[in-house]
Amino acid sequence: MKPGYKAIYEQYRQSILRGILKPGDKLPSVRLLASELGVARKTVESAWAILVGEGYLVSQGARGTRVNPDLLNLAKKYPVIGEKPTPTTAGFGKSLRDRPGFLRLGIPSLDAFPYKKWLLLSGKAVRAMRPEEMTQPPLMGYAPLREALAHYLNISRGLSCSPAQIFITSGYQNNLRLILNTLANQRDKVLFEEPGYFLGQQLLKRAVQRLHRVPVDNQGLQTEYLQQHHADARLVFVTPSHHSPLAVTLSLPRKHQLLEWARQNESWIVEDDYDGEFHYTRQVLPALKSLDTHDRVIYMGTFSKTIMPALRISYLVLPHKLVDSFRAQAEHSEGGQPVLTQKIVASFLREGHFFRHLKKMRALYSRRRKNMLAALAEVYPEIFTVEVTDGGMHIIAYLRSGTQDEEMAALWQTHQLQVSPLSIWYQNTPKRYGLIIGYTNVATFAEAVALLQRPAQMTRALAGK
Ligand SMILES: Cc1ncc(COP(=O)(O)O)c(C=O)c1O
């Protein structure tokens, strides 16, 4: 649906109040914004007129429209949802986890979350807590959530699984710990993608002695390489729906090759389907596990991208023959997950809110991704290039030349733009260089332009342009 003048007015007012647009920032021309949003110029002009009337914007004739330079910087008064105060001793290390700011990858659109519905379901869940639910939580998860998940995964991800195969966990670290402790010993060879999920490689480097990397190209993991060099591996971690971070999809022939490799060598595949729900250019693709006729795939899913990371609820779908050994391992190392949270999530799924939310988010992300791509082309046409993939929650702005992505990310971070340099997601050379940009919390094209412009001068200097 095209936005009306009121929606545009409200978006821009919020951007100014939240400090995304700062006093003195230049706005895009009426013509450009109207064509970007697919609305008549008059619609944008009406929104501008109100904002000028209220003193948020000043019109400077041929020089365009700016945020009123005399406005106090309002950001401190109206903090962005989820922002924490800036730590005074923040360095420029590689973990962005605890930093406030914009463009962080992998965070769902927090402004579009159905908070009212969540509040309602939370109240109901608290009121319905029964005494037996207040003792130790069930080790493999709250039964109604496992049932609702099995239903969802069968319909939406093409899996054919039962609730008995589902193990509710608290996120990636928990999953890795469980999988390694149950299936691998010190001498086992473990494989990871190159490049690959930054946190995953950090964790595995610490936990596994024989860790090897398998290259990824534009069709995903190179399965021929796997067959040639790693017939003896115990486990391989893959992100088939959208590779992390390149966002490419593992091609169908390679999916079959990968499954065949696992069958022949009796290896295990860990399918990390962290954001497989978000495809924009075609229908949602079924997960690799949906093709797993020999039951060699451990499927890993999470609510971090579809609901919120702070929930700390994820899940494994185990091959039938592994259920007992995972349970036995968990008896020693796990304590179960909070029942109340699981109850809320179960009713969110069961009552259909989850499906509706996903549908809404797919459309929203598709729009926000377009905005970010257009803003990148507008601000940095000479510095970055992008390769548009089918989905995901981030884009990669590849450097057209040079290798200075770490310096550039550090510079952007000083402007509270929490992007990650692509090269650090590689272990070996050759590497590719660029910035990984999360676009999901940037509401408009103008916001995207304003954010990208913050470090523009120094970015150009760094790129030698
Ligand atoms: C590649 C990848 N796998 C898995 C996850 C899920 O992590 P968690 O469930 O711990 O939030 C993420 C989240 O950022 C991710 O990027």
Walk me through what this model shows.
It contains 15 helices and 14 strands. It has helices at 5-17, 30-37, 41-53, 115-127, 143-156, 172-183, 198-207, 223-229, 252-265, 323-333, 339-350, 353-379, 405-414, 445-453, 456-462; strands at 57-59, 65-67, 166-169, 189-194, 210-217, 220-221, 235-238, 268-272, 297-302, 314-317, 384-385, 394-399, 420-421, 434-438. Strand 1 (57-59) and strand 2 form a beta hairpin. Helix 1 packs across helix 3 (41-53) and helix 8 (223-229) runs parallel beside helix 9. The longest helix has 27 residues, at 353-379. The chain is globular and about 70 Å long. Residues 106, 171-172, 197, 239, 244, 272, 274, 302, 304, 309, 314 line the site of pyridoxal-5'-phosphate (PLP).
Helix content: 25-40%
Please state roughly what percent of the residues sit in beta strands, choosing from under 5%, 5-15%, 15-25%, 25-35%, 35-45% or over 45%.
5-15%
Radius of gyration (Å): 24 Å
Q: Quick check: average pLDDT? A: 91
At the fourth level of CATH, the homologous superfamily of the largest domain is Type I PLP-dependent aspartate aminotransferase-like (Major domain)
Biggest β-sheet description:
8 strands, mixed
Bound molecules: pyridoxal-5'-phosphate
Uncertain residue ranges: 74-94
Query: What is the CATH level 1 assignment of the largest domain?
Result: Alpha Beta
SSE class: alpha/beta
Shape: globular
Number of domains: 3
Corresponding CATH architecture of the largest domain: 3-Layer(aba) Sandwich
